[in-house]
Design goal:
Elements: H1 3-24, E1 28-29, H2 33-50, H3 64-67, H4 77-84, E2 92-93, H5 95-98, H6 114-123, E3 136-139, E4 145-147, E5 165-167
Antiparallel strand pairs: 1-2, 3-4, 3-5
Protein backbone atom coordinates (compact mmCIF):
# COMPACT_ATOMS: atom_id res chain seq x y z
CA UNK A 1 0.00 0.00 0.00
CA UNK A 2 1.43 3.43 -0.89
CA UNK A 3 2.03 6.18 1.67
CA UNK A 4 -1.02 8.22 0.57
CA UNK A 5 -3.34 5.25 1.12
CA UNK A 6 -1.82 4.61 4.53
CA UNK A 7 -2.30 8.28 5.40
CA UNK A 8 -5.92 8.17 4.25
CA UNK A 9 -6.49 5.02 6.28
CA UNK A 10 -4.91 6.78 9.25
CA UNK A 11 -7.14 9.83 8.70
CA UNK A 12 -10.25 7.63 8.52
CA UNK A 13 -9.32 5.79 11.74
CA UNK A 14 -8.58 9.03 13.55
CA UNK A 15 -11.82 10.57 12.25
CA UNK A 16 -13.81 7.59 13.57
CA UNK A 17 -12.00 7.74 16.91
CA UNK A 18 -12.61 11.49 17.31
CA UNK A 19 -16.26 11.10 16.29
CA UNK A 20 -16.79 8.37 18.89
CA UNK A 21 -14.96 10.31 21.61
CA UNK A 22 -16.83 13.52 20.78
CA UNK A 23 -20.20 11.79 20.94
CA UNK A 24 -19.33 10.07 24.23
CA UNK A 25 -18.26 13.42 25.71
CA UNK A 26 -21.39 15.27 24.62
CA UNK A 27 -19.84 17.05 21.62
CA UNK A 28 -20.24 16.77 17.86
CA UNK A 29 -17.77 16.76 15.01
CA UNK A 30 -18.58 19.19 12.23
CA UNK A 31 -21.14 17.55 9.89
CA UNK A 32 -19.17 18.81 6.85
CA UNK A 33 -17.24 15.55 6.54
CA UNK A 34 -14.73 16.82 3.95
CA UNK A 35 -13.87 19.88 6.06
CA UNK A 36 -13.63 17.73 9.17
CA UNK A 37 -11.38 15.17 7.50
CA UNK A 38 -9.05 17.97 6.35
CA UNK A 39 -8.77 19.09 9.98
CA UNK A 40 -8.19 15.50 11.09
CA UNK A 41 -5.50 15.22 8.40
CA UNK A 42 -3.89 18.37 9.84
CA UNK A 43 -3.99 16.89 13.36
CA UNK A 44 -2.33 13.74 12.05
CA UNK A 45 0.38 15.74 10.27
CA UNK A 46 1.02 17.80 13.40
CA UNK A 47 1.23 14.62 15.44
CA UNK A 48 3.92 13.34 13.06
CA UNK A 49 5.76 16.69 13.16
CA UNK A 50 5.57 17.47 16.86
CA UNK A 51 4.39 14.34 18.64
CA UNK A 52 1.07 15.92 19.66
CA UNK A 53 -2.18 17.14 18.09
CA UNK A 54 -1.50 20.83 17.69
CA UNK A 55 -4.55 22.63 16.29
CA UNK A 56 -4.20 22.62 12.49
CA UNK A 57 -5.58 26.18 12.28
CA UNK A 58 -2.95 27.78 14.48
CA UNK A 59 0.80 28.18 14.18
CA UNK A 60 2.41 25.76 16.61
CA UNK A 61 5.75 26.53 18.22
CA UNK A 62 6.73 22.88 17.96
CA UNK A 63 7.48 22.77 21.69
CA UNK A 64 4.78 21.03 23.67
CA UNK A 65 5.15 23.28 26.74
CA UNK A 66 4.45 26.35 24.60
CA UNK A 67 1.60 24.69 22.71
CA UNK A 68 -0.32 23.08 25.59
CA UNK A 69 -3.26 25.45 25.11
CA UNK A 70 -3.70 24.53 21.44
CA UNK A 71 -3.41 20.75 21.70
CA UNK A 72 -6.72 19.37 20.47
CA UNK A 73 -9.17 19.71 22.06
CA UNK A 74 -7.75 23.16 22.77
CA UNK A 75 -8.36 25.24 25.87
CA UNK A 76 -10.64 27.54 23.89
CA UNK A 77 -13.01 24.92 22.43
CA UNK A 78 -15.84 25.07 24.96
CA UNK A 79 -16.10 28.86 25.08
CA UNK A 80 -16.00 29.08 21.27
CA UNK A 81 -18.72 26.43 20.91
CA UNK A 82 -20.92 28.14 23.50
CA UNK A 83 -20.47 31.59 21.97
CA UNK A 84 -20.18 30.85 18.23
CA UNK A 85 -21.48 27.31 17.76
CA UNK A 86 -18.09 25.86 16.80
CA UNK A 87 -14.50 25.82 17.93
CA UNK A 88 -11.96 28.07 16.20
CA UNK A 89 -11.03 25.57 13.49
CA UNK A 90 -14.56 24.21 13.16
CA UNK A 91 -13.77 20.63 14.16
CA UNK A 92 -16.33 20.62 16.98
CA UNK A 93 -19.81 22.13 16.73
CA UNK A 94 -22.77 22.72 19.05
CA UNK A 95 -26.08 20.88 19.26
CA UNK A 96 -27.73 23.88 17.58
CA UNK A 97 -25.39 23.67 14.58
CA UNK A 98 -25.99 19.93 14.31
CA UNK A 99 -29.76 20.50 14.38
CA UNK A 100 -29.50 23.15 11.65
CA UNK A 101 -30.72 25.88 14.03
CA UNK A 102 -27.48 27.89 13.89
CA UNK A 103 -25.27 28.82 10.95
CA UNK A 104 -21.52 28.72 11.39
CA UNK A 105 -19.82 32.09 11.29
CA UNK A 106 -16.30 33.44 11.58
CA UNK A 107 -14.79 32.87 15.01
CA UNK A 108 -12.30 35.39 16.35
CA UNK A 109 -9.00 34.14 17.73
CA UNK A 110 -9.27 33.80 21.50
CA UNK A 111 -5.66 32.71 22.08
CA UNK A 112 -3.60 35.54 23.60
CA UNK A 113 -0.34 36.58 21.93
CA UNK A 114 2.81 34.70 22.97
CA UNK A 115 3.96 37.54 25.24
CA UNK A 116 0.70 37.48 27.22
CA UNK A 117 0.82 33.68 27.49
CA UNK A 118 4.38 33.86 28.85
CA UNK A 119 3.38 36.55 31.36
CA UNK A 120 0.35 34.50 32.43
CA UNK A 121 2.56 31.44 32.89
CA UNK A 122 4.83 33.41 35.23
CA UNK A 123 1.85 34.69 37.23
CA UNK A 124 0.43 31.21 37.79
CA UNK A 125 3.77 29.58 38.57
CA UNK A 126 3.19 30.24 42.28
CA UNK A 127 -0.43 31.39 42.54
CA UNK A 128 -2.34 32.33 45.60
CA UNK A 129 -6.09 31.80 45.52
CA UNK A 130 -6.73 35.54 45.29
CA UNK A 131 -4.28 35.87 42.39
CA UNK A 132 -5.81 33.23 40.13
CA UNK A 133 -6.48 34.76 36.72
CA UNK A 134 -9.68 32.76 36.12
CA UNK A 135 -12.52 31.56 38.31
CA UNK A 136 -12.63 27.87 39.24
CA UNK A 137 -15.85 25.98 38.41
CA UNK A 138 -16.91 22.72 40.07
CA UNK A 139 -19.34 20.15 38.72
CA UNK A 140 -21.79 19.47 41.55
CA UNK A 141 -22.38 15.97 40.20
CA UNK A 142 -18.85 14.54 40.03
CA UNK A 143 -16.57 17.24 41.46
CA UNK A 144 -14.70 17.99 38.22
CA UNK A 145 -12.82 21.31 38.47
CA UNK A 146 -11.86 23.68 35.67
CA UNK A 147 -10.43 27.19 35.48
CA UNK A 148 -12.08 29.39 32.84
CA UNK A 149 -14.30 32.43 32.36
CA UNK A 150 -17.49 30.39 32.66
CA UNK A 151 -18.50 26.78 33.26
CA UNK A 152 -18.29 24.29 30.37
CA UNK A 153 -21.48 23.46 28.48
CA UNK A 154 -21.07 19.79 29.38
CA UNK A 155 -18.93 18.18 32.06
CA UNK A 156 -16.25 16.09 30.31
CA UNK A 157 -16.39 13.52 33.10
CA UNK A 158 -20.06 12.87 33.91
CA UNK A 159 -21.80 14.77 31.04
CA UNK A 160 -23.77 17.01 33.42
CA UNK A 161 -25.03 20.21 31.77
CA UNK A 162 -23.72 23.72 32.42
CA UNK A 163 -26.38 24.49 35.05
CA UNK A 164 -24.91 21.77 37.32
CA UNK A 165 -21.68 23.76 37.79
CA UNK A 166 -21.02 26.19 40.62
CA UNK A 167 -18.29 28.73 41.07
CA UNK A 168 -15.78 27.08 43.39
CA UNK A 169 -13.24 29.92 43.76
Amino acid sequence: MDELAVNEERVQKLYQRLDKEATEAGYHLNPDVEHTKELVRGLSINEQRYGYWACPCRLAAGEKEQDLDIICPCDYRDQDIEEYGACYCGLYVSDRVMAGEQELESIPERRPPAEERAQHKQQVAAPTLSALPLPIWRCRVCGYLCAREGPPGVCPICKAKKDRFERFI
